[in-house]
Amino acid sequence: MNFQAVEIARDLVSPRSTGTCRLCASPLTHTFVDLGMSPPCEDFRTPQQLDMPEVYYPLHALVCETCFLVQLKEYVSPDSIFTEYAYFSSYSTSWVAHAKAYCEAITKRLGISSDSLAIELASNDGYLLQHFGPLGVPVLGIEPAANVAQVAIDKGIETRVEFFGVALAEQLVSEGVRPDLIIGNNVLAQVPDLNDFVAGMAIILKPDGIITLEFPHLERLMAENQFDTIYHEHFSYFSLMTIMTMAKRHALKVIDVEELPTHGGSLRVYLAHVASSHSVADAVGTLLDHERALGFDRIETYGAFGERATKVKRDLLAFLIAAKNDGKRVCGYGAPGKGNTMLNYCGIGTDLIDFTVDRNPYKHGRYTPGMHIPIHGPEAIARARPDYILILPWNLRHEIAAQLHFVSAWGAKLVVPIPHVEVFEPGETPS
């Protein structure tokens, strides 16, 4: 770790200053969890960069006592994160299948057709919008990262390489662009100016149009110790209660909600203009009552999460140290953002994990930020024949366990760190 860079970052960002809530502007004084200092999770290093300074920023999540939004301060700007982005959605088979099922279901539910328009915000490499083509629904992607947007453009998906907010919404409206459907999958957490983003959606949406947003549910993050989903490009963490507050500020209403298994447990919320004809489904009130029963409207509910994160850290380190002391070889699977939070918070370097692998060729030959673990292609596992494989994208544990069935030939075992350290055989179904 470059301690000089760490101290510079501390001086620059003043991490202990209070700040204000990005949704309601109330003072922020309550800690949710403090994961120390970490570099940006997608800042993968080339071999030439290993001897260069690396800037660390606080991973100190706070919670607003007024609207209960859990949030990081904007230590890193979206421009620096998304100008060239290392995450390509299409490399997750299960995520692409999830997107395809959504497109088919929403097309049927809303009755959209060739006369309609679907816009996806943060459309990435076209993993989702590509499925509307066979359904005859016109689409437009909006994606700020030029390198991933180009992949979608090469697929024939119209994509604008821009950040979305009020300014772009007004420009699109002036061009006659008004969608019947706005899609935002796992983008809401990545927006530092929430009010500008949501106001933009309200401006551009047709009077009777629908917005669907998917995001990890704060309830699952807390219940299953998912602290590693906290990283600098995720500025906010949501409950339905907070989403209701956000929608109301912009004359929108939540008309339905679904609980999904993706990303360790997510919500899909449906929003519409307050003045629209859409009625509110019973599921909304049911989930709100559930969150109130869990104490999501009381600040003290959020205070105990930090200790649960610390326990996972201790248990994972104890397992890895014991494995290495027994002469076992350990490698990782995946180099996701959440994995880099885990590695840096726990201080896991090449003394405990020899290397990790990833299906994304962009990451091959690079090193994880902070801990500098080398990243290879998946074929490196068969060459190295490790005793244990630590699955860093634990939310894809079933998909990855199926991909790694062959490691049983030499007796390797798989490990997931969340919600607790679990070791299992490749043919078993992890809990």
Descriptors:
431 residues; alpha/beta; six-stranded mixed beta sheet; disordered N terminus
Quickly describe the structure.
The protein contains 13 helices and 17 strands. It has helices spanning 3-13, 78-82, 93-110, 146-154, 166-174, 194-204, 218-223, 240-249, 282-293, 305-325, 337-346, 380-384, 397-403, and strands at residues 30-38, 57-63, 70-71, 118-121, 139-142, 159-160, 181-185, 210-216, 236-237, 252-260, 266-273, 330-333, 356-357, 375-376, 388-391, 413-416, 422-424. The chain has a seven-stranded mixed β-sheet with strand order 6-5-4-7-8-11-10.
Can you walk through the features of this model?
The chain is α/β, with parallel strands linked by helices and 431 residues long. 31% of the residues lie in helices and 18% in strands. It has 13 helices and 17 strands. It has helices at 3-13, 78-82, 93-110, 146-154, 166-174, 194-204, 218-223, 240-249, 282-293, 305-325, 337-346, 380-384, 397-403; strands spanning 30-38, 57-63, 70-71, 118-121, 139-142, 159-160, 181-185, 210-216, 236-237, 252-260, 266-273, 330-333, 356-357, 375-376, 388-391, 413-416, 422-424. The protein has a seven-stranded mixed beta sheet with strand order 6-5-4-7-8-11-10. Strands 14-13-12-15-16-17 form a six-stranded mixed beta sheet. Strand 2 (57-63) and strand 3 (70-71) form a beta hairpin. Helix 5 packs parallel to helix 6 (194-204).
